[in-house]
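Researcher:
Attend to token order:
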Amino acid sequence: MENSKPNTGKPALNNNPTPLAIKDEVRQMFDNIAPRYDFLNHFLSLGIDKIWRRKVLKIMKRHPHQQILDVASGTGDMAILASKLKPDAIFGVDISKEMLNEQQKKLRAKNLENLIKLKVADGEDLPFEPETFDIITTVFGVRNFENLEQGLSEMHRVLKKGGITIILEFSKPAKTPIKQLYQFYFTKILPFVGSKISNNSRAYTYLPESVGHFPSGKAFEEYLKNAGFGRTTSLPLTFGIASIYTGQK
């Protein structure tokens, strides 16, 4: 039988795209843009990313949320928003030390250091025991996994039975004219503005490339199912520019 899993070929970041080389380059890329990441994120999305995160929070409220893990936590917008649920603990992991350093500054300012604990770690090799967390969130992070199957399997491993994984990720609009407008903005405007403000042109050409290679909708749900998740869902947001995916253990 033909393999039904979609292609997730990654954009090559260098001339020798071995897994370690790509992962190190992604880490370095995010380390470099960390100080400007929040401003660019909100500016380039016109603030819509904040609305999307609040939709993730609404889903979280409907499930047990004593122990929360935020994978690819970055500068911490999702982890900090999740603190409104008053869980027992939130853990944030990311491969970029500088992104977590930026998050730590926010936690200190908001007096959340005792609630949200940060660790530099690879999402494809999570440093936690099996069945530790009630909820796992990942916001704009899974498309950067070198091995998507491995990353999702790790989330499944550390999730409690009955727990839920919620993933917010960019997707690809299918309808005209949104599809054409999105393509123009993502491939022309965003890389130009992003590179000028961040002084890192590669980071903002990598973004549309990584989204273009990433499965969306039902195709991504198949990856969740193959990792062991059940009751999978996909919810397109803002004409399909982004989607929220869920899967339960």
